[in-house]
Amino acid sequence: MCVAVPGEIVRLADDGTAEVDFGGVRRVVSTALLPEVQPGDFVIVHAGFALHRVDPDEARQTRELFRQVLDESPS
Amino acid sequence: MNLLRDTGPSGPELVSGLVERLRAYRGPPVTIMEVCGTHTVAAARMGLRGLLPEGVRLLSGPGCPVCVTPVDLFDQALHLVREAGVILATYGDAVRVVYSALDALALAERNPDREVVFLGLGFETTAPTVAAALLRARRDEVRNFSVLSAHKAILPAMEALLQDPEVRIGAFLCPGHASMVLGAKAYEPLAERYGIPCCVAGFEPVDVLAGVLRLLGQVQGGEARVENAYPRAVSAAGNRTAQEALDRVFQRAPARWRGLGEIDGSGYDLRPAFAPWDARRRFLQGVRFEGREPAGCRCAEVLRGRIEPAECPLFARACTPQRPVGACMVSSEGACGAHYRYRRRADG
Ligand code: SF4
Description:
The complex is a heterodimer of chains A (75) and B (348). Chain A is of the alpha+beta class.
């Protein structure tokens, strides 16, 4: 089951893990598959690994996309 | 900016706007298939089937990792526990529950006198995490850790379904998180070769609705391309580091799927370089298993989208989540289980 809520990188450790804050709940996750992350980044985590860095622009695109779907979907 | 708030599009107006759009569809009839267990659950939970316009069907495909894994894999896992005396670790509720493959590796390091086998299930979302654990095991020379890989590639299964003359799929709702690794571009060959509209979608009700609407827009316009309705989690190229980890550790091999049979290049087997960490090579050489499917269970047809769960004569009668007959009812992501749990809402 996939959890889609992004968490915020709080702190990087030198063993390839990071502390991630999910709206108050903190978890240690591996950054082995997303080595470029920095504190403050929002990431999507799956099975204990950060897998995707949420780009603020992409987040904005999502809003844009919903507006588009509403404007031009079939009817 | 608060990404938690800003990325989670919500709001009743948005949902009702999307539902209104959906209801207004007047294009040709079409069968949409989703191939992701999380989509199965999301669609069932929100009662999406009840919202679809006439002529539009949404089917669940082979997106539940436990459901598509042939019975004999679980026989192999049991054999490892009973005969080889290993500690078996996996997600979910089989034997020793771990949150991550790295937890299983840590378990091995804490128990140097025991063998720890991680049962690797799932598609491209989880397979790279297991690859990362194996790379770590090799680097740290952890010898009492191994993986029984049943990892599968989703694209060859989607292609096999398109080639099956008995299955008629008009559009694919592509998985949210496997696509996070693969990238949205990965579906382009499918869209081009088979003229099939594809749309990557997330898991919130609005995400699923937007994905379905995008697909209907393509169907109505006679188009077949790849759209990405989940850009906040999925990029065009995907996660390269994860792709590299997959490629370093695994090689593609033919694999058997419940319902779909053997599909070329659809399995992730450990490369020979990782033989010391390959539970199949280490413990299961020459051991054969029958793996019989339970009598009367029609999971195989459910997984191919040939029937809906309710069309199985055992559904909600002999087969319920409390007393499941087949894997599609056992797993929380299975189509039968999801349909059962949310069926009142879906019917109403
Ligand atoms: S309802 Fe039960 S028996 Fe029927 S296909 Fe689903 S899991 Fe198998």
